[in-house]
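tool_call: predict_structure(chain=1)
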Amino acid sequence: MRRYDEEERRFLRDNIPGRSYAEITATFNAWNTHFPLLEDRVPSPPITPTQVNSFCGNNNISTGRTGHFQKGQAAHNKGKKWRPEWRKSSTRFKKGNIPPNHRPVGSTRISRDGYTEVKVAEPKKWRLLHLITWEKAYGKVPKGHVVIFGDGNKQNFDLDNLLLVTRAQLVRLNQQKLIGASVELTKTGILVADVLNKIGKRKRGGNKNASRKNANT
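tool_result:
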C-alpha cells in the first residue's frame, strides 16, 4: 500500500477536485520530481492512476468529474462553423511551437509493460526510472546485464529491491518462473538459475564430446 507524508496528502487534496485520475497522476509526479529537492528531501516513487483512485476512495475525496456533459454545459464547438481555410498548411502546427501535450524533462509516465519512465532530455528521450535509480547508486549497468525488481513489483524502487542479473540468468528466471514475491525468494531463484545454467552447459559440452567421438569411430 502506498504511504504518503503530510505534504503529499495536502498536495493531493488540493489538486484532485476537477481533474481526471490521469491529470492528477501527471501533476503529482511532476511536483514530486522537483519540490522535494527544494526541501533537501529525496523524491518518493511516482504514483499511478490506480493509486490515485485508491487514495480518493480511502479519503472520501471526489474528483467531481463524471465524464459526461453536465446539464446546461455548452459544447466546446458550439456556434463554430468549419471553414475551408482550416485545411491550409499555414494554419497547422508549426515547427518550433510547443504542443499542448508536451511533457517537460523530469516528467514520468507508465509504459504499456507497467514500467515507470522518466523524460531525461528533449525532444522525446525517456529512460526507465529503476535503471536511473540503480545507476545513481552503483554506476552504469554492465554490458550483458539487466536490473530486475526483486519482489516483482515494478513500482518498488528501493535499492534493496533492484537486483543486477545477467541476461542468461534472466532467461532462466523467466523460464522457470523463479522471480518470487520477495527479494529473498528471487535471490534464491538466481542461485537456482546459476545451477541450472551450469548443468545445461555441462550437458551441451557432453553432447559435443559424444558427437566428436562418434565422428572419429
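agent: The beta strands are 108-110, 116-121, 125-128, 145-149, 162-166. Proceeding to next step.
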